[in-house]
User: Fold these one by one.
Assistant:
Number 1:
Amino acid sequence: MFIGFSEAETFLRNCRDVVIITHQSPDGDCIGAGFGLKDILAEIGIRSRVVCSDPFPTRYDFMTCTGAGEEFEPKTVIAVDIADEKLMGRYQEIYGGKVNLCIDHHISNKNYAERTLLRGHATAACEVIYDLAKYMGVTITPHCATCLYTGIATDSGCFKYDCTTPRAHEIAAEMKRCYDINFARINRYMFDVKSLGRLKLEAKVVELLEERLDGKLAILAVTQEMMEQLGIAMEELEGFAPLTIQLENTEVGILMREREDGVFKCSFRSADSINVSAICQTLGGGGHAKAAGCQLSGDMETIKDTLTEAVRKALEE
Amino acid sequence: MFIGFSEAETFLRNCRDVVIITHQSPDGDCIGAGFGLKDILAEIGIRSRVVCSDPFPTRYDFMTCTGAGEEFEPKTVIAVDIADEKLMGRYQEIYGGKVNLCIDHHISNKNYAERTLLRGHATAACEVIYDLAKYMGVTITPHCATCLYTGIATDSGCFKYDCTTPRAHEIAAEMKRCYDINFARINRYMFDVKSLGRLKLEAKVVELLEERLDGKLAILAVTQEMMEQLGIAMEELEGFAPLTIQLENTEVGILMREREDGVFKCSFRSADSINVSAICQTLGGGGHAKAAGCQLSGDMETIKDTLTEAVRKALEE
């Protein structure tokens, strides 16, 4: 059942002992949403705990520093930024079919929860949570603002992508007027700072970036072997996908990352008008119009051909 | 004489045959300010022409496409985004000492014009011009909005840097609500799209990036010879300076670009708290706290040592 702010407020004010689930391969938005919501619940006297199937990457320590929360037997289950129960990872076994409230911004949300507060055109789950907190009149602490800003900034590519709503800018303006937070430092750590290893891997990218379909498609495939040679941890590859649409004529870029089990995680980016979510759906995946993904197993070159064919069809439509 | 919006409006409504001067080595903000102001003047029936000491790079064609303006004998001289007459380049000879109005956001503005509308804390000259147009009640055309957005976006690193004001976000929100402009495409061309040559040069950067002062200073020196070998045009090096503060511990980054006459143009960036404008002032240059520059001639290694010593002093203060 889809609900509005009013019902979401009523639900939140009357819930207790909340477990907040963030999606696997956690990013800035789900971590910001999880820890931001935890702060908001604390403000109204409700204890909560943030969980994730994967460890939170250390680069998000400035958000997770408040701690995931004490152990208790949950009475309420809330999922944030999770469009599909599958994305709960190992928590699907425990909480699958038991989510009381889902707060999300993915238009592809599967409506799997008892109640879903969905704003399908919001930049980020954090944008929805900020507006909900304002609606409820709950004080947003500086840490909470830091979390919610980070989610909006990371999901919008620092206000760069098409998904950046006017509201995202308005929230950033409100936060900059209200809080003495070093936003530039957050942006620097989220978008600019790299390890020397990462810089070296990016340098290798230039040689690996493969143009297909007259340059309209660019594929970048990174294998486990390459990562080992360079001493790069998997979490450092987060944020590589946008590099695939750097060349002027590229319409679709795909980052293929080999996982430890040999399966390739394929992250699609659209430079402008091609809907990559639609392409990924034909390959068993999904996502947003400009950023989507799927997973394929098999030989790397065969997968590249499969992807090329799927993109060729989309370009012809 | 520093003036406010009211006096600036009176001046603009009563001027005619305007030459708008943008600074040498033109960037998104001065081009946006120049062509945006030209649109605003056209709305109130005043003809103008935009001039620059250097050619406008082709990547800004979407702003300059309206044309620089017809030839006429100027009766009014307006400088935009120019803190110091020296930055007019070859136009200093013609218009030096004759600027009737300067519209700027550099706190270091030398107050060289008859009247100066200075908003020293604005993100961009385009932010000042947008607010002036709103104050005047002049219609902002989609092309004008495109120009002003681009100036704000480019000077703020797409809302990433410390100089991004709440007002910059509010203007972006207003524009996104009012205009059907493909902002994401502008951002893509301003921040993401690169030539293959540029990508290769960036790859070379990793090997060239030299850490000094325990990694607190990073220097990246690019010589004429390197550029020739890679077939890179000087204008493609614009935007390289932020690459110098990519590593986590870097406090100050310097991009040294050898000009054709052998002089090195040194662009400083501060990662967080060091004021690089103050450092550059000790070397005959200037700029903003987080982005400044100076020019030094001599042997490359000697210049590196001079720069290192200046940064060492600043770090110790």
Number 2:
Amino acid sequence: MALPFEFTGHPAQLLRVGPGFSLAAQPCHAAPGFAGKKAAGAAALAARAPLLAQLQEQLFAESRFGGKRSLLLILQAMDTAGKGGIVSHVVGLVDPQGVQLTSFKAPSEEEKAHDFLWRVRPAAPRPGMLGVFDRSHYEDVLIHRVHGWADGPELDRRYEAINAFEAELAEAGTTIVKIMLNISPEEQLERLTSRLHDPTKYWKYSPTDLDERAFWPAYMESYQRVFDKTSTGHAPWYVVPADKKWYARLAVQEILIHALESLKLQWPSGDFDLARERLRLSKA
Amino acid sequence: MALPFEFTGHPAQLLRVGPGFSLAAQPCHAAPGFAGKKAAGAAALAARAPLLAQLQEQLFAESRFGGKRSLLLILQAMDTAGKGGIVSHVVGLVDPQGVQLTSFKAPSEEEKAHDFLWRVRPAAPRPGMLGVFDRSHYEDVLIHRVHGWADGPELDRRYEAINAFEAELAEAGTTIVKIMLNISPEEQLERLTSRLHDPTKYWKYSPTDLDERAFWPAYMESYQRVFDKTSTGHAPWYVVPADKKWYARLAVQEILIHALESLKLQWPSGDFDLARERLRLSKA
């Protein structure tokens, strides 16, 4: 867990949701485990990116020789918290060939006609892949609880179904990392306002963002419930302070590096006779 | 078509396959249209990347408001020519959320039981997306001609089917850019050798690479035939010298920028009442 630069602690330890976790007690503007400012954070992000890229390539390479392991990053957050920025600035630094990204929108009529996990299962990462869920099956407990679209017993059934589903994935070789980007309502207001004053960002704004904002406390209760019910040993949640975008990106990158390092990845030796192939090549 | 830096001509013009094109007459080691060396090429690639990223974002944004347009980059080449490098170093510089990458491997039994375009059609890019085919339906004419797996009439049928398929895509709003990375056999030998002397690259080597290498002249004939039959106004081929990786990346980036600029993309204005939303926000 040794980390270079201005790190003073590991985000994978400091931000992990454990027993007794209280979302309300978490700061949104802090940078736990990092003593530097924005510039130092950006430098650390860039400096550590090649390691993340190498680990991802090793995971991918392993799958070419029968390896079944994969990584799944689940991103959840209030609007504007920076999920997209994580995808472009952290996931975007690894080879796109090893990334399997799924953005879950409001379900279609066909999707609604099935169980809520129906559309999620086929999106699970293939062997060797870094899967990313931009939103996920957690919408079906988060927003459904906020708006009362599912009652208590149904929500309980879903938490259990989610735990069972994620246990299956883990059993099949998928390392699961669940991230909640924790933005403050004040910071969200600033970001929404900036979207409405920059013509290159109008397209990212939707009036419903503001509608949902009115339910902020209910969403926080919903998240707390999700953490209580679904932060498991095989699929832990991490709550990442997100008011500083640079910190959130850095923290998520380190959490991913940590998850991949735990797999003890190696470069495959290939399934051919090295000496023989070198000889063939020398005569080619 | 104005280009900064050491450009002396536009790759989209210089490398485009037109009437009378001869693959055998094309240099592999040259850098057409660029007067600089490797360092200048890398600098130009980095300097132009934000423009490509912005154009891609505009294409994506347009689709959120009903836009149907998309871009499809088709990559074909001999082994080691650098398709993967184009994906990671050119496509990898745009937001992964706007990229839809499909790597076509040897077809499965199920795929073989269908027409060769059966597996390709569903991989066409969705509106707003930058689709990338790493190999493609062209394998079904290239390699099949080399190994005699399809006879002359069948190959002719496939060229026609490909042209009809690509015309359909173009009609539906997809701009198609077809790239052949043109590596020399000497350079391939060097790259294969380096893969066999670097344990982090063993996994990329396959003995079949060397088997196929023996058919080099037949492959070049197959490519020539493909260019003769399928370089159309709506889906042109570009043959990119690929012995210098830095040049190939730079050239493909400029060809993509050129294709996207031809779409005259604009930032969407959004589908809401700007003044009203600003007022709502100010009270939020």
Number 3:
Amino acid sequence: MSNVHPFDPLSPAEISQAVRIVKNAIPHEPLAFRVVTLLEPPKSQMLPFLHAEHAGKANDTNANTPARIALIHFNRGGGVSDLCEVHVNLDAQTIVQERSLAGRHSFQDTTEMQAMEKACLASAQVQDALRLLQLPEGAVVQVECWTYGTDGMNDMRERIIMCYLYMSLTPHGDSNHYAYPLDICVEMLSETYSVKRVLSLPLGENDRFGLVSEVGVKPFDRRKIHRSSEYHPDLVPERRTTTKPYRVVQPQGPSFHVEGNLLTWEKWRMRVGFNFREGLTLHDIMYDGRSVFYRLALSEMFVPYGDSRAPYPRKAAFDLGSNGAGVNANNLKLGCDCLGHIKYFDGVHHNMHGDPVVLPNAVCCHEIDDGILWKHTNFRTNNAVVTRSRVLVLQTIITVGNYEYIFAFQFTQDASINYEVRATGILSTAPINLDESVPYGTLVAPGVMAPYHQHLFSLRIDPAIDGHRNSLMVEESHAMPLNDPAVHNPFGIGYTTTHKFVETESPLDIDIARNRVFKIVNENVCNPISKGPVGYKLVPHPSQMILAHPSSYHAQRSEFGEHAVWVTRYQDGELYSAGENTMQSAGGEGIASWIRSRTSPLSVRDEDIVLWHTFGTTHNPRVEDWPVMPSEKLLVSLKPVNFFTRNPALDVPISSQAENQSVLVGESGGSTSANPCCPKL
Amino acid sequence: MSNVHPFDPLSPAEISQAVRIVKNAIPHEPLAFRVVTLLEPPKSQMLPFLHAEHAGKANDTNANTPARIALIHFNRGGGVSDLCEVHVNLDAQTIVQERSLAGRHSFQDTTEMQAMEKACLASAQVQDALRLLQLPEGAVVQVECWTYGTDGMNDMRERIIMCYLYMSLTPHGDSNHYAYPLDICVEMLSETYSVKRVLSLPLGENDRFGLVSEVGVKPFDRRKIHRSSEYHPDLVPERRTTTKPYRVVQPQGPSFHVEGNLLTWEKWRMRVGFNFREGLTLHDIMYDGRSVFYRLALSEMFVPYGDSRAPYPRKAAFDLGSNGAGVNANNLKLGCDCLGHIKYFDGVHHNMHGDPVVLPNAVCCHEIDDGILWKHTNFRTNNAVVTRSRVLVLQTIITVGNYEYIFAFQFTQDASINYEVRATGILSTAPINLDESVPYGTLVAPGVMAPYHQHLFSLRIDPAIDGHRNSLMVEESHAMPLNDPAVHNPFGIGYTTTHKFVETESPLDIDIARNRVFKIVNENVCNPISKGPVGYKLVPHPSQMILAHPSSYHAQRSEFGEHAVWVTRYQDGELYSAGENTMQSAGGEGIASWIRSRTSPLSVRDEDIVLWHTFGTTHNPRVEDWPVMPSEKLLVSLKPVNFFTRNPALDVPISSQAENQSVLVGESGGSTSANPCCPKL
């Protein structure tokens, strides 16, 4: 395995091998494999390995190579109960650790989901309820499975899937059925694929849900039928024809190089990883030979809905922990999701039998032009020097039922990293009476209510700023006091910065009024120019934190949602800020609990620390978000701050017409300008 | 003049004509023309005109056409005192209004500035001081003129220019002299181009400035000589060669159409304006035949420095009011400042004699691709529908001495408008002793200190959301109360929005913790789907407000800097939120003063209102910002919120490989993907 890097995801062969080892250990028993993924080596093993690797000591490297370990979750008996976890050493071909997760639930598998949809529709109870609705001729009923957002109304030992029902009124497979949310929902039992209860949904602010068998349900209101909610081009004939083609041409190919999972571009070097849960992960990120980050990945995301009426408090999705960003990654298509020269990375997962399944084109890698990187015009000579910003993008797009998320790490030539999230797709909808409205939702079509909700993302940032002993310094800008004899501020215009180091694990908040800046610094490395520590700063996305009451299940389960920034001491295995098993979790197992659980407060000063950034949107839908939502962009950045001794992008190529070949509008054939921007070039 | 639109800037012929009329009125006297620009017609005249124009009533239009009026500022006697303002009616060829601005100062003219540099260097006093510095062999001294930031130390009736001295140590004209700030500065008198005082600068935290003739000045410290501060390619030989060419090809040309200053693109329609002060202005902005904004432009920007030591409190630049974004606009070069098909707009200004001067390529217009606009994958059919976001960019770049600003209005296919500001260029620097540091600056090179400063922008937004009677509604998201019998929130997860209308002119602040949203709505137009008023929301750029003490000249002069959002009732002529004449202003003439000056509070409810957004950065320089700064991006957006009855970008073309012709990395010759993204297309 010498050509396998410890950060490489498990190969199909490794998955098969790991599964075989488990099956051999537990013969004569059906096993449902939920998770077969790489258990990343302990950092204590990786550091010497990387040290040797960076030094180019190949032999040492092999000697130091950590064992390949597979992390496996499976249900004994093949159902959904009796969940077990084992670690399989693929080098030694043995199970090295096992523990029971009895009482916990695995994430919602798409195969299971589709089977659940069928079971729901096939049930007599559901069919009876549908008959009561007296749906229009030709209605095609669709079932949407939702993970069960804990609300305390059911025994959590029972794995329940919530099925919400919709219909479409055209036979077209891509008709938007979210335009017709039906008035009933179904509680399904995962173990038996059987109906627990069929419920009627509230249709007004003061309406309450109930058992259809008791309260019944009204026939579908024909006045709700409309034609404006389709999005598929087959069903939206009128299309604008004014947008002329726009192509990206790279005559010499891309500027990046890929060797397996090792990606180099400009002065960046990193390893691309992927797993069923986080999707895209990045490892051992270096710039110009200097270590910057050990690992970057989205840790979790939580989407709690604000509709207070049962059963809607159950709509609270952990899209990573309970659904999986990796397994829901789109198969990206050339020419559709990006322009220019594109390299795709596949993901590898498996089915419930443990057979490896390739997820093609799960990640794309390409370059974009981001306008002007830096410019200066010397007004004395009228000479302008312009450089353009080339950006490397690593993008993955996930579909979680109705909704899409576009996740992109962007690397810039000035040594910054951006993490961009775009939210798009179709709003989750609920039925409402035509003449009613509710204070926690927007009417987006006749009888269609799009409930308020929040998207809360937790980005895990494992820094290695010139080494693994880092500190978090909080800088603020404050006006100098007035009329203080000890301070020279005669004109009242002076301001200075304060710098506080965070000493122990804790949450922090954004404070724009004080221009609070979060700097990850290495106190052992001094910048010879600034005379201070080298560092990178987090440029956060300021967002409203979770609105659910601290005592609610939503808040208890998504501990990261209470504060914008958290700093912890690195611990192997502490990857998921809302806990490892979010499916029907009851709370008390996330980042706040970790910190609380330490026997004594852990120092984060000059230690191996991890930064966690909570950001998102309070999404109170607009009508414009319907029937499909224009991308809503969120951006987080990591920027060098006194890490270099000057602008690291000083040496990028000067922008010139000879290279860029732009076309002057008005001139025929697009002749080039008479005055090139940089006469000396 | 029937083909001239009332929003068209003055043509060279109109400028000549206006100047001639003034010269004829005031013969036998030298006049220095500072301002000759269009006085935009009163809105009361424009509304009927636009109404007829939109209705295609050409004849009516001519009948309603407001007179062309030139706004002119000139100094009688040809010096800098006795400033006068006149309005010239170009149709009637008469002066229709005049007033004396005696005691006020015009903005800093670049011609004047360059003459001032020469005068400063030529002065014996300055030469004596330079001799004391014993500069190295071959040093080339450069003078930087700064407008005088009022600090109360000089009589404001005297127009003073601050000259800071620098040197370069190479003969190359584009050598970065900001790397060698000299220890002296000079107060120059504008009227006589003569030296008022030569001052020594403080070189340490406890150092104070003084008259060189009294305190002297030390010889230049040779240990400060270094080679790492150049930016021009001639002087930075080592350049990365890894960035491969990247071109934008538009085989069918751009998607926009330009007729004079009328710009149409996709469903947008607007008029492009330009003037010496604001630079790019936009007028009568419509989407799909509906009125959205009457006028958009940057109103003012203020750059106060945080160094409390005299004379640095004088470093406080109003880059629009005292320098001019228009007159300092770069001559944009094809292939350097943007890619693809580019249309340029010229600006028109004049010299002090009143002769028209064309500012070529002051604004560029082009398209960019901004990634995915919307996407949905139907997991049942595996059909993905993707649209790409095409964006129209109107960009202007200004150079104010050492610094550059890139201003861009971006129009999107989903009916949003972004205003992007990029800050780049070279940091303003001050000398410092090698062994010292100060708490209000960063050391960026040996003996070079980059002082902390703020960039505060004031964006003026004159809305016309489906008409000119609009209101400002402030929305917040609040958790529903817990254990309140009057509220149904049994699970503690409910949240709703509050909506407050702003009734009278006032400043407002951003509140992220409450997800405060600023919605400009038209209460007279109801969205048939949402059942609420149509509107656009301001997506602000959350920023720290001005740090200078409210009693300071900085705060008094830049009234807009105290709050993030202001709403006022529209008044003709209220364009500049820090006042009309910022040059050595003493304060009390900006947006807060307007509001205070109303005889009674003006209603902004269902009235013709104007929104003003203050945003910026507290820029505490990084070493990475030296010797030239990577662009720092700021973004403000205006987005429809329940303005349309569905996603206005629903009809954009579906992204396809046939159109985009991307190239798969790894395949030779870039063959296209086997599976197009939208099989049905």
Number 4:
Amino acid sequence: RRGEMAKSTQLIDNEVFRAYATYTAIVLLKMMLMSLITAYFRITRKAFVNPEDTGAFGKGESAKKYLRTDPDVERARRGHLNDLENIVPFVGIGLLYALSGPELSTALLHFRIFTGARIFHTFAYLLPLPQPGRGLSWAVAYSVTISMAYKVLKTAWLL
Amino acid sequence: RRGEMAKSTQLIDNEVFRAYATYTAIVLLKMMLMSLITAYFRITRKAFVNPEDTGAFGKGESAKKYLRTDPDVERARRGHLNDLENIVPFVGIGLLYALSGPELSTALLHFRIFTGARIFHTFAYLLPLPQPGRGLSWAVAYSVTISMAYKVLKTAWLL
Amino acid sequence: RRGEMAKSTQLIDNEVFRAYATYTAIVLLKMMLMSLITAYFRITRKAFVNPEDTGAFGKGESAKKYLRTDPDVERARRGHLNDLENIVPFVGIGLLYALSGPELSTALLHFRIFTGARIFHTFAYLLPLPQPGRGLSWAVAYSVTISMAYKVLKTAWLL
């Protein structure tokens, strides 16, 4: 029983894996924050999609006018979907990369650039910043994931 | 070769990891069920988005009328997207949490509340139940993921 | 310190895990490719959703006409979302499956069929191929994931 528990914690004792865990938790929490931002815009802009969500703002016909789209709500939703499209590959490929035995400094470089670029991307999307700010931050994070995938495929290749 | 196989199964021998595997499989299967529910509504409501999908219901001009949106289809799709937005962080953060050495009872509490809340959320979305049923079940599952992320960051922190 | 690093690479030394890593990297890269395909259609069809993205094509009123939807852009986006809905469960359940001690040949069969079916699905969606091509490839990949989930639940079950 003791040996089993020791085994279970060994991954988290590895420094590269600890770095992966830290940055993955940060980018997933950042992605989750998009839900709160969307909810904030839905409530302040009074723009809902489900009839049952408008109850606090009126009943019957008077509530129907809140079933509408709002540019800020849609912008936050697009930022959220873009996170899903880009953070899911980072989490999946990053795990395999962390287990492929990279140098700690190289791994940290990948994780830090990805995380910084995605946080910048969120600001660029929500403010919004003029292009190519958002486009470049998207491309930087995308390239980091490609670089990790290359290391994974080089190390693990078994087709 | 023997030692290698023993190593490969050790994670799955750990009780917290087994619990994580069980609940992750359940919530991912539940998320996959949303595809079948959307397909069911598309077929019974005859509401499609791709022209090539309407072939069974008519040809040419007569098929075009099935290229439309339907409230039940859209509701199922929103439930599916909400699952993606919330179950992806659970799967990613939950894996790191399971490897961070929590007590089995604490881990089970997290996994059970999350899974129960997300199953309730699906019923609340599809029926639909009056608010705040859906909102509360969303918030409960969200809080469980935050709690696991806190444990991961406390254990693994390496920035 | 040396022993720690040896431990960190043991998963990647396991053949089933190497196969999982290879196919997961491939399907996630394929999913990421959908972003580039969407961007390609947005630029060639001049169909954007964010006002700040139209700058290269005109200013003020003349740029507004590029804020529109385009059938090819929407088709690529639906293919991307379908990937998220199906590749996320594969990555999550596949990891647990790879750790549940399957035979290498059985695991390879699962990973190869899933990957082949999802690559076919993308072609079927984008060309598009007549149905039931896309529907069948979706169902094949879906069934592979269900089969892996069954093995995971049978091996790990701890509720």
